[in-house]
Every structure is written in structure tokens, then in C-alpha cells.
Design brief:
Blueprint lengths: L1 E6 L4 E6 L6 E2 L4 E7 L2 E6 L4 E6 L6 E2 L4 E7 L1
Antiparallel strand pairs: 1-8, 2-4, 2-7, 3-6, 4-5, 6-8
Length: 74
Amino acid sequence: MAALEIRSDIAAAVSLVLVAPDAQVRAGDELIILESMKMEVPVTAPGPARVSELLVSVGQPVKEGQLLLRLDVG
């Protein structure tokens, strides 16, 4: 399987984590909700995959480009 790294597009705080390691996800599934300037920004799965590693938790601040989770695809 190939690993895919999902990174934050913005500096924000993790508002909600919707998946756990080993969860199966499909294209468009929401994985994490980030909050920045009172706006919620969903982080979605690009395609079918399995969550291999979750690297953030609720309330944690993240920087732009920070690694949020890894997915196994293929």
C-alpha cells in the first residue's frame, strides 16, 4: 500500500477529529474539522483509504503545512 500524508492548508486549531486509526474512509469523507477565525474548515479524504496514523487531537493548534494524519491507499 502507498502512504498518503494529509497536511493542514491553514494555521488553525483542531476542532473535531472524526476518524481513528484503522478506520476505512471514502472519497469526500470528513476526517478532521479545523477552526480558524471562527470558520470551520473540513479536511476530507481524497479517495478510498485506511487511516494508518492520526497525529493531532482536539484543541491542538496546527501550523500551515503541518502533518495531520497518514492514509494507506491502494
